[in-house]
Amino acid sequence: MPRVVKHPDARRSELLDFAQALFFERGYERTTVSDIIEKAGVSKGGFYHHFASKEEMLEALAARLAQESVARFEDVLEAPGLGALARLNAFFARSRRMKIEDAPRLRAMFDVLFKPGNLILHHRINAAVIPVMVPVLAAIIAQGKAEGVFDVPEPKAAAGIVLQLNGGIRDAMARAIEAEGTPAAAAALDALESEARFLGIAMDRILGLPDGSIVAVEPGFIRAFMSAREE
Amino acid sequence: MPRVVKHPDARRSELLDFAQALFFERGYERTTVSDIIEKAGVSKGGFYHHFASKEEMLEALAARLAQESVARFEDVLEAPGLGALARLNAFFARSRRMKIEDAPRLRAMFDVLFKPGNLILHHRINAAVIPVMVPVLAAIIAQGKAEGVFDVPEPKAAAGIVLQLNGGIRDAMARAIEAEGTPAAAAALDALESEARFLGIAMDRILGLPDGSIVAVEPGFIRAFMSAREE
DNA sequence: GACAATAAACCGACCGTCGGTCAGTATACC
DNA sequence: GGTATACTGACCGACGGTCGGTTTATTGTC
What we know:
By secondary structure, chain A is mainly α. Chain A has helices spanning about 10-25, 35-40, 45-50, 55-70, 75-80, 85-100, 105-115, 120-145, 155-180, 185-205, 220-225. Chain A has two domains: about 10-50, Orthogonal Bundle (Arc Repressor Mutant, subunit A), CATH 1.10.10.60; about 60-225, Tetracycline Repressor, domain 2. The interface between A and B is medium-sized, with 32 and 32 residues.
């Protein structure tokens, strides 16, 4: 095979690109290093020149995704003159809008990501995103506390818990996806929707707000998203 | 090797016993099927006569652990004449007492379970415990709602969220364990304690109780547990 | 500008291990 | 004696990872 030399950074991110596509298509464990290097046109040795192991590559990928995801919220977080509650709702609204915008692609990704046996990929990404997201959310909550809008002792702990809750609906979605096609599908969807409805209230109460202040999940959003499919 | 025939159920649970010991000692991935059959004194074929795959065995083990863990709460859940709040606190108290009783063994287990790379084992157990535990907690919450003590729309969704939160401190513990020995250890422990403190308040608020009603984690418990070590 | 010399990117044959298979054998039970 | 099933262990293919060696880029020297 002809030898092509590239700038290390370029090669590295290229390998990450191909790996990401494959991981999200087949899952982490079902993707072999050979698959990745074949797509990337690199030898085994070339791969291991850039990554110490397949797992280290996953870590690098998770870190990159975490960076990307926090970057998408930068403007919302830095917009001046926004009250804490408005900022928080803008944060959730942005999250919803992005999900709707490429719902089909995300749906396909979730189908893979949430299948049991892909826990590694799912939780590795989660583990990378949380520490990046916590300070950001904590800042909003601290603002709200300073404004006297939120009633909360520890903004940082509250941020962790809010993110925890947010992850909870993902778990419920995983259960619903797993149940798809079985008789329990409808029940799982109902459970998912009721959990999503409660999620907003739970967040309100944790932050000391009146019920209904936070709009985390819009009514109908779940069903719309769950039925989105790549055409 | 001499052939020993046993009752299928006995052999099966025996294999699970040895596997459990090994999984909690080295983790799921680092334990090979050969390790298990060596300890159990069974051939490869014998193993695969009882389990379709290593993963199916993990599932069976998780299910068994889930059964065992819910069984430990039976008396608390069925004790007559207990108010919902008292029952809930009895539930948490039992959980704490059990943890303290064999803290050293649990600590050693957590050390393995929470190491990154053992996500599979950890979350597989979790995934098995949650569906078993949700109805149980939901029953308590429904009781509280009927008594007019809890203010909560959907007991089942609330149960899922409370369990979700409970799992959250485990994640924080995982982070603290990971940080052990590094300069960030003290900070991680502080974060863990503050999250644990907030946990009770968060549960109170979600269930519509005044702050301080639920005692999920006693002060000092975390530090005591984290410093427990096998002698 | 020609030319070593050094470092770094890359190649690909090879290896050990692990999960899993299967054709056959021993044992329990009727 | 016959049948179902618990069990054996040699074997397999695939996968993550290694390593000695080769090519390319870069830098320093005259």
